[in-house]
Specification:
Elements lengths: L3 H7 L15 H16 L2 E5 L6 H12 L2 E4 L10 H12 L6 E2 L1 E2 L1 H14 L2 E5 L7 H13 L9 E6 L10 H4 L3 E4 L5 H12 L5 H8 L7 H17 L7 H12 L17 H31 L1
Parallel strand pairs: 1-6, 1-7, 2-5, 5-6
Antiparallel strand pairs: 3-4
Helix pairs in contact: 1-10, 2-3, 4-5, 8-9, 9-11, 10-11, 11-12
This protein binds adenosine-5'-diphosphate and magnesium ion.
């Protein structure tokens, strides 16, 4: 199996067609809508969805469009992100000052810097991998916003980006009540097909596009990309540059049902694999296609009569 870039270069491409592609989806529009409101009201919002569904891209596009000042609070291991790290990030990003520490970050310094900055710009603190934040950090975030400013308003927006709802755990009910959560839905069939068309569309015929956009992997950008590369590779090894519906069947079935070669029985307690879902989708599609072609045939012969 070639890797992604090898497949692309075998097709004569000079750049990765997925890189820097920016595609509008229902999810990305919803993220923009919610963030617009969140920024206006200096709210605390979580954007939740599985890895690869497009959270980071949607958030980046929305924040760019909103023209806000974005501060990323991160550590190599987000479990260890503390409220002091978040305060430090605010101070360093919004001023040229050094962080004054007397054991803790000086709240006076923080209040002055964020207070002044927030009059000139809209500030959004983005915390990625927020499902890994310590619940104590979440609680401190809330109190930092409430106590630290002594002002009538919150001074900035907090955006938590997470693979699962960061508020869905013990010890953060106070924070949960004061924040909203947006769940990403994933790509619809039509969006998946549109995304493929706008990136590697010329290597896929219409029937293959329709077949693959139905697959469960097509809901997630990263998984869809992986599938597309596998399909391109499959076609290339057959000496073709255009992926057919048959390729989609073969690759989807192969990936979903790896046959045990040793002849040993499968373990009994296997969870329902996505493979079964794939097979049923493909079977359904095959059935639909039969009906379509039958009725096509009938209308043709009707015209001939
Ligand atoms: N709206 C989009 N338009 C085009 N490509 C996208 C879009 N969203 C995601 N992608 C692609 O999917 C990949 C994973 O998206 P990302 O936003 O990093 O997912 P997440 O943050 O949910 O794990 C990106 O690197 C990009 O190639
Ligand atoms: Mg991400």
């Amino acid at each position: 199996m070639m890797n992604k870039l090898e497949v692309f270069s075998s097709l004569g491409l000079k750049v990765d067609p997925f890189h820097k592609a920016s595609f509008t989806t229902g999810d990305s529009l919803r993220v923009l809508r919610i963030l617009t409101m969140a920024v206006e009201s200096r709210a605390m919002v979580s954007i939740v969805g599985e890895r690869g569904c497009g959270k980071t891209e949607a958030v980046k596009a929305a924040l760019k469009k909103l023209g806000v000042t974005t501060i990323h609070a991160k550590r190599e291991d987000q479990e260890k992100l503390t409220i002091a790290d978040i305060k430090t990030a605010l101070i360093l990003e919004l001023s040229n000052e050094n962080v004054k520490r007397g054991g803790v970050v000086s709240s006076m310094q923080l209040r002055r810097i964020v207070g002044e900055a927030s009059r000139k710009q809209k500030i959004v603190v983005v915390i990625e991998e927020a499902q890994r934040l310590h619940s104590a950090t979440l609680r401190s975030l809330k109190s930092m916003r409430e106590i630290e400013w002594l002002s009538e308003d919150e001074l900035f927006t907090i955006l938590l980006v997470a693979q699962s709802d960061p508020m869905n755990r013990a010890g953060v009910s106070e924070v949960r009540l004061r924040s909203d959560c947006v769940h990403m839905q994933g790509l619809t069939d039509a969006e998946a097909a549109g995304y493929v068309r706008s990136t590697v569309g010329r290597y896929f015929d219409d029937a293959s596009l329709e077949a693959l956009s139905d697959l469960p992997q097509a809901k997630n950008f990263l998984e869809l990309q992986e599938l597309l590369v596998a399909l391109l590779y499959h076609a290339l090894t057959a000496g073709r540059e255009v992926v057919s519906e048959q390729d989609v069947r073969e690759v989807a079935c192969r990936e979903s049902a790896p046959l045990p070669r040793s002849g040993k029985a499968k373990p009994q307690s296997q969870p329902v694999s996505s493979g079964d879902a794939l097979k049923s989708v493909l079977a359904k599609r095959a059935a639909t296609n039969t009906v379509t072609s039958l009725s096509d045939h009938r209308s043709v012969s009707g015209a001939e009569l």
